[in-house]
Amino acid sequence: MKYSKHFEDMLLERKIDVSWVNATLGKPEKVEIHKDGTKHFIRRIEENDNRYLRVVINEVTTPARAVTAFFDRRLRRKS
Description:
Blueprint: E1 2-3, H1 5-13, H2 18-26, E2 30-33, E3 38-45, E4 51-58, E5 65-71
Parallel strand pairs: 1-5
Antiparallel strand pairs: 2-3, 3-4, 4-5
């Protein structure tokens, strides 16, 4: 899988550790498939105040490309 420039920039800007991305992709708590050809992987990150990380992958491209990652405020934190 390739990382887009935007994806790499967002990891730095949002202080998202690559290990959190790998954990989210490797063992997501939830996966959403969207009509636009993206797949969203979601996982709670205990080390970041139990916030939910959403990693968006474009599977239409070959190879698949990581598009963006962010902590999803729409999902509630669990203590």
